[in-house]
Amino acid sequence: MDGQNITGVYHPREPKTSPLWHLLNDHFETFEQDYDEKFVREYGFYRQVISDVVRGYLKCGDLTEGFARVRCPDCHHGYLLAFSCRGRWFCPSCHAKKVVQLGQHLRDNLLYPVPHRQYVFSIPGREALSQYIIRNTFAVSKITYNEESGTVIYRSKMQHRKSKGGKKNFQVFKAEEFIVAITQHIPEKSFQLVRYYGWYSNRARGDREKQKQQNKPVIKESSIFEIIDVSDYRPKRIPSPKWRECIKKVWEVDPLLCPKCGSEMRIISFITGNKVIRKILEHLELWEERQPVERAPPMIKERRYEPIDDGWPSYEESAISVN
What we know:
Blueprint: H1 19-38, H2 40-43, H3 48-59, E1 67-71, E2 78-82, H4 92-110, H5 126-133, E3 143-146, E4 151-161, E5 166-174, H6 175-183, H7 202-213, H8 243-251, E6 266-271, H9 274-283, E7 304-306, E8 320-322
Antiparallel strand pairs: 1-2, 1-6, 3-4, 4-5, 7-8
Helix pairs in contact: 1-3, 1-6, 4-5, 4-8
């Protein structure tokens, strides 16, 4: 996106206004405690990566977890930029940036300038391909969270289900049921999410590179199929876009364009120490004491223990648990 088309003013996001944030802040701890009892039979054993990603999301965009100081060198206007969790396939903000990064990588570094078609439908553009490949499994805009009843209404396209009341474009979940549904799609760390086959596979690209080095023809003539000669195409090898470029692409605003004088702002420091963070936020009247969420104490099942006498006079059997 060209700089001349960037006319808006960047406003740091407020993650705590999201219904997803409130849902997880209210119920995720209980979900962790109840998982083995309620969900392990259907969804399998609990994975630690779920806790890591969700707790990272709850801290994403929170100034109390650290921030960068952004300042204009001309008029000295500035703001604080909270750190992000960089969570993939869960955090809506961070994942949107990854979609942009993959889209530009496919467009500039990988895909050839030829029409692309999938079995079921055509894709209108190479960059739009990434939005289909790594689209998030849910949309925050479709979530309605009721704190009083602890339920979630998720609205989507019209569905035709005779067994569930016929036509409807929404589904009602209990809070923990919705959490388990969206967290099962969180991948393990370093798990490869996008795989390339055929023309774009690692082996095919490597073979083409060897042929180029050996001055061998890459494309063979054919009288049956229409051949589009891309032997002279050279990808740009553009590096992945950084934070600023992603914000400009997603929100169409420049986060480093001073709203006061129009000059380019600079990141002057990164603040990570807890004492310094609190001191700065208190000075700016931005510090918020965290209020503990009131939750019912976990239920503890009573157990009684009974010894077993198996008839062996010199052997004392250990006690067993009887629920």
